[in-house]
Every structure is written in structure tokens, then in C-alpha cells.
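Appendix B: complex inputs.
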Amino acid sequence: MRIDVLTLFPEMLEPFCSASIVGRARKAGIVEIVCTQLRDFATDKHKSVDDKPFGGGPGMVLMCGPVFDAVEHVESLDPRPATRIVLTPQGETLTQRTVESLAKKPRLLIVCGHYEGFDQRILDGLRPMEISIGDYVLSGGEPAAAVLIDAVVRLLPGALGDRTSADSESFAGNLLEYPQYTRPREFRGMCVPDVLLSGDHGRIAGWRREQAELRTKARRPDLLEK
Ligand code: 6GU
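Resulting structure:
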């Protein structure tokens, strides 16, 4: 897979994309991630990418010209068709289901906004998917891009190394994860549940399933209704 990111702050994303699972997948050639500076596509001498909103109001709006030019330039660098994504709090909330469908695409092109938002003609003209990562406000799309890239890349074949698969995890089966323990058996008077030390794999699986259900019922009953 190839992922392009158009951003005014590539320095926020580059270290993220070089570390941990994403960094390793990149080194292994499982994903190619290219961050492109949107400001390089500004056309005036001040290198403007944003301007005041027509009709007045606070803040600044990302201009059409640099975004269209950057999208068209970056798309021309590779023949695979890109799924265009704009990160915006106005978008559809990201879910594991959407992540799974994006992980099957050959190429993603992610545009990070800043300021008050995008000129509406960017959305009308480029027809991207509009994605939000939740109901809270970020200063820009870069943290959301990091979230999206992480969630997608870990699903690519080979990205998690020797693990069987990612799909026993929270949300894949609409249940939260069961509690996990490792050494030591006792820490500051707190003990690992006996069942996990029993060696009885049937009982362990039953206990884990029950714990996952109890936890989901208590914390995220909305997941059980789905
Ligand atoms: Cl994608 N962008 C911004 N600026 N804020 C957000 C968001 C995105 N998702 C949640 N909040």
C-alpha cells in the first residue's frame, strides 16, 4: 500500500511514521508513506495556503488552489488510484469497519486541514471521504492522520509480525478485551486470578469470554446492541 499525506506540518507525522509497528512495516516494504508539504503548492510570494472567509467570521480557511494542485501532483506520482480522504471534525466518525475497508485499498491520499476549515469547493471538487476521529476538537488533522495510519497499517498482511491476526482484538468482535496479566503472580498483595494459572485451556477461554462480556456490558453497552 502507498499512503500520501498532504500537510502543513510534515514534521509532526514523520517521526510517528518511523516508529513502532508503522515504522517497521515501512522498513519491510509493506507500506510506503510519503508526507508532502502543502505550502510547496502555494502560488503567491507569501506562500499563502489560507485566507479570510468570505462573509466574515473568525479564523482562516484553507484555499482551493494549493490543495487541488498538491492532490493532482501527488496522484500523478503513482499509477494506482488513490482513495482521497480529508480529515475534518465534520466527517463521518472513524470505526474499525471503515479502517478494515481502507486497509484493502492500494493507495490512500490523506489531506490534513488546519485553521477554521476547508473551502467547500475542495470537498465538492475532489469528492474525498470526510473522516473525523471523534467528538472533540483538534487544532489540525495531523494527530488524526497518525491515528488513521496506525489503525490501517497494523491490518496490512505482515505488519504485526508473527501474530496470527489482529481480529481477536477489541471491536473486531464487538467486545472489549478481557483483562491480561503477566509475571509476577503476586504484586503488592494483588494476585493473578487462579484460573489463568490452572493450565485448563477450556476454562481459561470461558473465563476470558465472560470477562470480555462483563466489561463490555459495564463500559460500552452500546457495542452489545450492534
Ligand atoms: Cl479529523 N480534525 C480536527 N481538526 N479535529 C478533529 C478531528 C479531525 N477528528 C476529531 N476532531
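The chain has a mean pLDDT of 95.
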